[in-house]
Amino acid sequence: MGKSDPKNPDPYKQQSVVLVPSDIKGVTIHRMLSVYGYDDAPHGHGHITFLNVRVPAANLVLGEGRGFEIIQGRLGPGRIHHAMRTIGAAERALEWMLMRINDPRKTPFGKQLREHGVILEWVAKSRIEIDAARLVVLNAAIKMDEQGPKAALTEIAQAKVLVPQTALTVIDRAVQCFGGAGVSQDTPLANMWAQIRTLRLADGPDEVHLQQMGRNENRRGIAVASKIEAQRTKAEELLQKYNLPKSEIGTKIQRAKL
Fold this sequence. Notes:
single chain, 258 residues, mainly alpha, Butyryl-CoA Dehydrogenase, subunit A, domain 2, Butyryl-CoA Dehydrogenase, subunit A, domain 3, 2 domains, two-stranded antiparallel sheet, 6 helices
């Protein structure tokens, strides 16, 4: 994907998508990149340069200036797909945590881990957070099914931001329960954390989604101000109608003495 028409007045029609074979002249794959030290080749991303690469015009996907349309059409379902898989990862981390804290061989200070400090609180919080995140994903999926990805942009963004953060919190608790083993290759937790941490960047960083959601939510500002003012006016009318004293917001309304 590249900018094919930077002067187009519509910023969403400045990009195009072109299919480029990896073995064509001018394409150089310098190296495959690791994720927090984990080798993800050949499925990950690489350091690639394109120098004077030429491809047939037929390699242009869908049409010139439709790159943003293509990518956004993929990103919506892709984001919720990431969220679904991340819920599964969080569940797996919780299972490893439960296995660890109930291991009869692990009895620091003469007690099993589940009997120490905040361990069971971590378990409870993890259960609540995973279930809450799952409902956010389900809500986005339902809206996508009923109204399509474009109508569910806010719900998809909510899932995209919330779920990785939730999973990282749960995984981190599991790592803490395992101690040194939790950050090694002896459990899947370290690798899970590294992979899911990238989701806060993939398909748009959290900050972009939060900015967009905040902007959209703030558009209700004028409407809700009018709503609250109408409620105040109605309250005044009712107080006068029933001969009740006016009370400031936050104080208890006392009935007038007859």
